[in-house]
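Quick one: structure for this chain?
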Amino acid sequence: MKAAVWYGKKDIRVEERELPKIGSNEIKINVAWAGICGSDLHEYSHGPIQIPVEKEDPLTGKKAPLTLGHEFAGVVEEVGDKVTRYKKGDRVTVNPSITYGVKEDHLDIYDGYAAVGLHTDGAFADQVIVDEKSVYSVPDHLSLEDGALIEPMAVGVQAMKEVNLTIGQTVAVVGAGPIGLLTIIAAKAAGASKIIALDLSETRLQKAKELGATHIINSGEQDPVTAVKEIVPDGVDATFEVAGIEATFNQSVKMTGLRGIVNVVSIFAKPILFNPLNLTQSGVKITSTYAYEPITFQQTIDMMANGQLKPQGIVTGRIELDDIVEAGFEVLSNDKTQAKILVGISKEK
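Got it. Here's what it folds into:
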């Protein structure tokens, strides 16, 4: 089969690979659509960050070279002899999280974590093999293209849970890339009264407004903290840092109100400096969103199915697997008007 394999920084190769025989509890999926995630882009531009290189990942027993891709949906091709919930022909998506599974769900995702497509072979390929427990049905009235958006949308939904957002509260989203846009969609669904999007790209800011932001701020034209406090004088209740650089982290702390909360959703490629006194003097708390609980993944599917969450507007491009480097990773690296690029494998609906 054809697969896009990560060998190192700026080294992804589309090549032929053999799939192993599926295990008793595993499912082989014909991939229809797969999204390029910011995590994938970080591995391409700056990696290795999460991909195991020198030794095998303790959860998966795998190391590079690995096939990328963890946002996807497709059709079941084959099931292991102990699989009971799915059969050939079922339309499915996958929660790519791989955990030890020995703690409660809200702790489990932080107690040693790996992911399909980062710590073992993923879905930028004709087919992928996953454990049955990771598989979820795609409702009939959602397309498989929609199914490829469930995983990143779940990140936004979990982000709302991490800050305990309640109806009427105010939020700032610093960074209007794909996950930032999905965070905006989730904040709107959660009932935020003011959703302030900040970015350097006017195109991304207009997309943010289209998807639910009530206010937009170009951080290159205005001081971000001052601009936010012109809208919410005491600072916002919650800020989502979705840019992943030192300046935006520090700005996020300063634009958050007293005893508010900053949720770091982005993946930082390198360490940063910040002054803890900014926390001490404001009571601002820091939390993070890395993955999502299984219930959040199912809730995301349900909310997309009933129309409460509509992430389809973040898609800005659809490409072929053969073109994933030039038309995918390179475009996302250099063109900040792009948001989510989907890779069509079988392109089944």
